[in-house]
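User: We ran a pulldown and think these components assemble together. Before we commit to crystallization trials, I'd like a predicted model of the whole complex to look at. Sequences follow.
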Amino acid sequence: MGAAAAVALASCGGGDPPPRSGPGPGSGAGLLNSILAFEHAVVAAYDAIAELLQGDGLHYAREIQARERNHVQMLQELLRGLGATPAPGRTHAEYARSFPVLDSPDAALHFAEDVEERLVRNYLEALAKLPDTDLRRPLAEIVAEEGADLAVIHVLRDEPAAPTAFVTGTL
Amino acid sequence: MTKRAGNDPARPEPTLAADPVPSTADRIPPTRRGFLRAAAPALLAVGAAPVGAATAWAQDASDVEMLERLLALEHRLESAYEAALRRDAIEPRLGATLRDQEREHVDGLEKALSGYGRRAPRATVPPPELGDALADRDSFARFALDLEAETVHAYVDATAALRHPGLRQPLGAIMANEAQHEVALRESLGESLLSV
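Assistant: Here's a predicted model for the assembly, 367 residues in total across the polymer chains.
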């Protein structure tokens, strides 16, 4: 599954063109909206992931999903602050059609790992590109949370929480 | 306007011979060697982007000052894990992993500082609480969690405020790893993996 799963997920969210919005080029609104579109997809993905998990896996899938919902809200607030229109989400059915086939807890956690890696990567790229310190700070806080979420998925997969010294999000 | 150390626009940008400048995260590999090869030009380049507002220390600090603070925090973590390993105050495999990763962060930050023509500051004195924390594994894990949380906070400040855009991505990659250390320490304590 690997990278292909995350690419599939990107095709149902993160790859969307940002909606037409007020701020001009260079404001960061387009970049934030691309991330928001992907976060919408991630929230839906965790429903599919959670369906296959029980016990600790289910508990943490729901906890991480709640954190991703918070990230959606933070991004929406940042975009509104820029005078931009936040990207809308799609229906769960639309997202679900683009997810990989998940037929086991291991497949679900593998998908979750791919998703979290891509999130880290998206946010790290945004940190380098966003022009405003006040936009970068909340995104830096989110990067830390995504790093922790990825570590939790590692633990659920019986892997070390922190396998490498630099979490690049490289798939 | 006062010229800040490390942000002299007249200073030539140092580069690593044979290391092409990476333009996107697509080129950042997950290994230490790969990371340093990819990030070194960014870590070594000197930037002069406008500064915005962040928290107090980051708001007024130059990039160099922020890097020096992060380096001091990394040295403190490395020393703490090293002491814990010597005193059996951490599970050996976990302790070695965390210590070694802090060393990799130190290497990266020292490279960044050398790019500004600055020598890395000497290691700081261990905090007095370390002695008590080494009494047992749970005490040390809680102590280390506090250090890691403080370090993550410092990286958030720095990553937001750094003038040099090429530094934000590699420092963000370190920050995410420090957040993973917190998860590893909570796991060792048998506590909930995510902070509330």
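Chain B has seven helices and no strands. That may be worth checking against your pulldown data before setting up trials.

User: Thanks, that helps.
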